[in-house]
Design brief:
Structural class: mainly alpha
Number of helices: 6
CATH class: Mainly Alpha
Number of strands: 0
Order of helices and strands: HHHHHH
Strand content: under 5%
Radius of gyration: 23 Å
Largest sheet: none
Distance between the termini: 77 Å
Shape: rod-shaped
CATH superfamily: LemA-like domain
CATH architecture: Up-down Bundle
CATH topology: de novo design (two linked rop proteins)
Length: 182
C-alpha cells in the first residue's frame, strides 16, 4: 500500500512539473511572438519612412541621400530573440530620421502639401500606433511570465528548466520630444 501511495505522489509531482513547464513555455513563446510582432511593425514603419525619404529627394537631395544612407546603415531587424534595448535603438533611428524630415518639410512647404507626403506620414503614424499596441502586448506577456516565475512552487520548476525573468520595454525618454509630423 505504501508503494502505491509513493508512486501516486511521484506521478502527481511529474504531472504537475509537466504542467508548469507547458504553462511557462506558452508564456515564453507569447513574449517571443510579441517581440516578433514589434519587429514586423517597426519594419513596416521603416518602409514607410524610406518612402518618405524618397519624397524628400527632390527637395533636399543631399540631405535626404545622407539620411537614407544613415537609416540603412543603422537599421536592424527585430526578431523574437531581440532585446528591449534593440527595439529602443531602432525607435531612436526612426525618431531621428523623422525629426530631420520634419526640418526639411518646414523649409519646403510644397513638400508638406504633397499628397504622397501626407499619405506616407499617415502610414508612419499608423505603424507607430501598431508598435505601441505591440509593446503593450509584449509588456503584458512579460508581466505574466515574470509573475509566474517568482511564485512558489512554480519558481522551483522555472529555475530547473532555465526559464528566466524577461526585461520590459521601457518608454524612451525622448519620446515626449518627438516632432509632430502633421
Amino acid at each position: 500500500m505504501g508503494i502505491v501511495i509513493a508512486v501516486a505522489v511521484i506521478v502527481l509531482l511529474v504531472l504537475w512539473a509537466v504542467s508548469c513547464q507547458r504553462k511557462l513555455a506558452v508564456m515564453d513563446e507569447n513574449i517571443n511572438n510579441a517581440m516578433a510582432q514589434i519587429g514586423v511593425q517597426l519594419s513596416s514603419r521603416f518602409d514607410a519612412l524610406t518612402a518618405l525619404l524618397d519624397l524628400t529627394k527632390g527637395y533636399a537631395d543631399h540631405e535626404s541621400q545622407t539620411l537614407i544612407e544613415t537609416v540603412k546603415s543603422r537599421r536592424s531587424v527585430i526578431t523574437a530573440t531581440s532585446t528591449p534595448d534593440d527595439v529602443l535603438k531602432q525607435e531612436g533611428v526612426i525618431s531621428e530620421a523623422l525629426g530631420r524630415i520634419s526640418m526639411v518639410a518646414e523649409r519646403y512647404p510644397e513638400l508638406k502639401a504633397n499628397e504622397n507626403y501626407a499619405k506616407c506620414m499617415n502610414a508612419v503614424d499608423s505603424y507607430e500606433k501598431m508598435v505601441r499596441t505591440s509593446r503593450l502586448i509584449y509588456n503584458d506577456s512579460v508581466t505574466k511570465l515574470n509573475r509566474a516565475i517568482r511564485m512558489l512552487p512554480t519558481c522551483l520548476i522555472a529555475g530547473m528548466l532555465g526559464f528566466r525573468q524577461r526585461d520590459y520595454l521601457e518608454a524612451a525618454e525622448d519620446k515626449a520630444d518627438m516632432p509632430n509630423m502633421k
